[in-house]
Amino acid sequence: MWRIVPLLSVLIGALCPAAQGRPPLDVNDTQQQYQADEHSNVTLTVLCPVNSSSDWLNIDLMIVEPLRSIYLYDSRFQPDPHTDDQFKGRLQCDPQLRNGMVECLLSDLRLSDAGRYQWIVATKGRSNLTKLELVVRAVMSQTQEEPSKPTERERIGLYMAVGLLAVIIVCLYLGNIITFCNFTRLIPVEISCLRDNLSQKN
User: Fold this and answer.
1) Is residue 68 helix, strand or coil?
2) Distance separating the N- and C-terminal Cα atoms of the chain
3) Of 101, 106, 102, 129, which Cα lies nearest the Cα of 43?
4) Tens-digit pLDDT profile for residues 98-144
5) Contacts for 84-89 with beta carbons within 8 Å, 24 or more apart?
6) Would you list the domain boundaries of the chain?
């Protein structure tokens, strides 16, 4: 419930400016787009029409689908910023305006972080809504990009196996040649013996 109170105060002020004494909510129709790689960091920046003399600042960074606040800061009701569990430890915003800018650093990007966001930044008498889109590019791991290379020991073992196989093939080939040569030498001897046997019988 405490998260809704600051947002309602901003929306009521935007819809009922006369009652709150502030102008309607200014909507920036130009959607900012940020692109970054998975596991990298990105800085989200919004330019605010801020009343520098105001002692009240409300920052509400929301993700659109599904609509929920991921960072909420209200100097009146919530001096300690609230960060959504999905972004806790990864989203850090500077509530101190610098040259009318609000910056949020989102680190260790995930593919699930991609989507549409919107800021509502309000001070006493002025408020602004800015839309932005975050595109997160998937990065393939090194093991997926390149096949694992064999180590030096594996390469030596592979060379030895190939060399041994080549030696075995050569030995088998030479053995067959020697066997064939010996066989061809024995044929005339066998024929001569056969002729001698036949002549003796006759």
Assistant:
1) strand
2) 128
3) 106
4) 677 888 999 999 999 999 999 888 877 778 888 999 999 999 876 55
5) 86/112, 87/113
6) 4-142, 151-201
